[in-house]
Design a protein that fits this description.
Blueprint lengths: L14 H9 L6 E2 L16 H13 L12 H12 L1 H7 L3 E6 L1 H16 L3 E6 L5 H7 L3 E6 L9 H10 L5 E5 L12 H14 L2 E6 L8 H4 L1 H8 L4 E6 L12 E6 L3 H16 L8 H10 L2 H33 L13 E3 L4 H11 L1 E2 L5 E3 L8 H12 L1
Helix pairs in contact: 2-12, 2-13, 3-4, 3-12, 5-6, 5-11, 7-8, 8-10, 13-15, 14-15
The structure holds pyridoxal-5'-phosphate (PLP).
Amino acid sequence: MLFEKIEEALPDPIFGLNQKFVQDTRKNKVYLSAGIYMDGQGNAPMLHTVKKAQRIWVEEDTKASYLAIDGDRNYVEKLGRLVFGDRLWDTSKDRIYGSQSVGGTSALRIAGDFLKAFITDHIFIPAPTWANHIPIFEASQLDVKRYVYYGQNRSLAFEKILGELKKGKAGEVFLFHGSCHNPTGADLSQGQWQEILETVQKTRILPFFDLAYQGLGDGVEEDAYAVRLFADSGIEMIVTTTASKTFGLYHHRVGGLYILSKDKNACMKISSQIKKLIRSNYSNPPAHGAQVVARILGSNDLREEWEGELKKIRERLQNMRNELVDRLYQESGLDWGYLKERKGMFAFCDFTKEQVRRLLEEYGIYMTENGRVNVAGLNESNLDYVVDAISEVVR
Ligand SMILES: Cc1ncc(COP(=O)(O)O)c(C=O)c1O
């Protein structure tokens, strides 16, 4: 009877809703909750370039052995070049340690374990943030502290962010979203990043960038602006990334962890410790997704085609966000024009918890509890319905 005393855990705020959605028998239900890209037909499509790269790999794949603990070096370099750009990679690779990871989540978790073991016992993350940041860092035994990122007047709380950073002490860790802030989509401007960097340099805080949506905001290069600005300054920092969103490889679980230190010697030691952490966790990563990404990024033709696919995704996200805002205005005079300026997959709508509950229960419209709408879930077949429902509940 050892297991009987176990209490049931609360469902995950995002995946728990998926289950509910699948069981919902309403024909007009709408899925706007998880951060997955969907096309105009409501499907999460496999990219053409991914299909092509998979075919190439299947032909070339003859090895069945384990990968190294921290993954495939060729993949780590290709992804590193995507994140940091060729110039920075070429000039700084001696001070960048990179590891393949199992999606962005395991990169965050391994980084959390690393921070707890060697750097700090707490981490500052934005409020609001991606719901899973909190349990990930708590699982690493870090005390999770919050800094205000978004204000009551539907805008970025830049002065508050800066104020918190100024109070930061050397070696304290602050997590930033590299681009397309989840859930708000409200990103810092280039000038604001510059100010943040100056503050970080003064306080000697350790910046930690979660770059989960590179290419879904303004473009692959543009969305890496903050990460590259900081990396270029020569400071120590951590970057996690994932191929889930940018390559649509959600189910293949592939991402990366990069730690920027002072020199090669520090990198070597970091590498040994990260490998130790991974070995006792999942031992070594799966090969498939990383091979696909490495082939796309390693071929000029596939890379160009992939950037074209990414551009279409980006444009569809922006179009659906604009349509939502425009139709809401036409239908009910609701002025959510501020949402048009936002980046990435989400529209962080000004709903109360009660309105979110009514949208789910009365209309079968699923979004996260904080009012985050995945605009990729909107399409011509459900937009009118969603606009009517929102107009009704905010009335
Ligand atoms: C901000 C942020 N970081 C990390 C992740 C984790 O990505 P993955 O699904 O690759 O683990 C997500 C996924 O939604 C995210 O939104």
